[in-house]
Amino acid sequence: MSSLAPLSPRPLPASCGEVFATPDGAAAGFVRAQLQGPTLWVQDRLSMVDAGRPWFAGWGGTVWTLRLSHPRDALIAAEEALPCRALSAVVVELHGNPAALSFTATRRLAVRAEASGVRLWLIRHAAQPDASALRDRWRVSSLPSTPHADDPAAPGDPHWRAELFRSRDKRPGVWAVRHDAADRLHFTALPAAGTVAAPAGADGLSAAR
Q: How far is it, in rounded angstroms, from Cα 164 to Cα 171?
């Protein structure tokens, strides 16, 4: 019966988490939708080649982008930036499973994020889950958007399928996530494979950021 227990209506972001990306760019959009203030966004070279540069048009926040050749340099930049309380978040995009991203390296990042209150997001491109000290681990892919309210032929709010497959303080689960024009995230619990969905309210499960 535990599989029928209701999921959290909105799993709040941890102090540090990682998102395993699909080639559709969903991971960057999912992370971008959760940024709430000044942000440092770091990419290694292969991530930029694979996924392109992040897009911030229309976002009112301040973001600094840093592009570095080696994953080791990207991790060093993140580690040095996390103690800066003028930032609200540090985002790091890494490609593959580089040797520099050891369990010890993730532990150092987690300790600094938790000490400063600056949230860390690690986006993993073409990577397999390995040992990590980060608190939440997600897989994110795109879902079809709803029609635009003023033009049914145009795309509406972005949607993602977000699977929290490992967490240190939350129940794993799967959600459909929508980011609306008012900059709010709405989470609706989805059934895991082989289970029955727990009933939601009439409007699903949603929360403002």
A: 8
What confidence tens digit (pLDDT) does each residue in 81-103 have?
999 999 999 999 999 999 999 99
- The Cα 140–Cα 32 span in angstroms is 13
Residues 6+ apart with CB under 8 A from 135: 14, 15, 16, 17, 110, 167, 168, 169
| Beta pairing partners, 178 | 159, 186
Render pLDDT for 37-61 as a digit per residue (tens, 0 to 9).
999 999 999 999 988 888 877 677 7
What are the backbone dihedrals phi and psi of residue 46, each rounded to the nearest 5 degrees, phi first?
A: -70, -30
The pTM score is 0.84
